[in-house]
Structures are given as C-alpha cells and as structure tokens.
Amino acid sequence: QLSVVMADDVAEIQALVKHWLCEAGHLVRCASSGREVAQLVRQQHVDLIITDVLMPDDDGLCVIMDTKRTHPEARLLAISGGGLHLQASDCLLMAKALGAHDVLLKPFNREQLLAAVGRVTQSGA
To answer: Contact at 8 Å (CB) between 17 and 39?
Structure first.
C-alpha cells in the first residue's frame, strides 16, 4: 500500500486516477496545483507523487524540483498531455531531466498507469 498524491488541474483525471489507485489498494489524496501538493507533502508522509506537468500555481516541474529537495525519498511520476505552447513529449522530457523517476503520456489507461506506478516504486531510491 502506497501513500500517493495525485496532482492534476482537471478534476475528472484526478477522480479517475484516484479510483484506479484506490482499487489497487493505495491511499490517494488529490491536488489541483503545485502549491496544494507542497501542502499535502508537508502534512504527512508520501511514497509517490503523480503530477501533471502543466498546472496553475506552481506546475509539475516545480513539484519535481521541490520534492527532490525536500523529500528525496518520494518517488515521482510525471504525466502530460501537453498544452497550448508545449508538446507533451517536451513536457515529459523536461520532467525526466529534473528528476522524475518515470513519465506517462496522456491519455493513458488503467493498465498503463498501474504499470508506470510499478516501475517507479520498484526501481528503488
């Protein structure tokens, strides 16, 4: 069982990922911005942060940098479908360069998500 923070500014994506992870037996809290992630991580231990790269109020790249600095033991999975000015592949390359343990392109299905979570959490610190 993992303690997971799922960060995405799209409520439907939050809900779907939370549903899939809860079904798999994990504890999941959701955030809509990088700022909310920082608050949740300060409040209690987190094993895994799944963060969208493009979000308001501190994006996923900020989440990755902050987490690497303040909670280096936490695992990081970056997700992206791109945005107005950036392609998803570029977002994910930046996330990986900043220290995300793995990346996942949107849209993804349940199996792809759970496989990525498995890769991230089994690859050690």
So the answer is: no
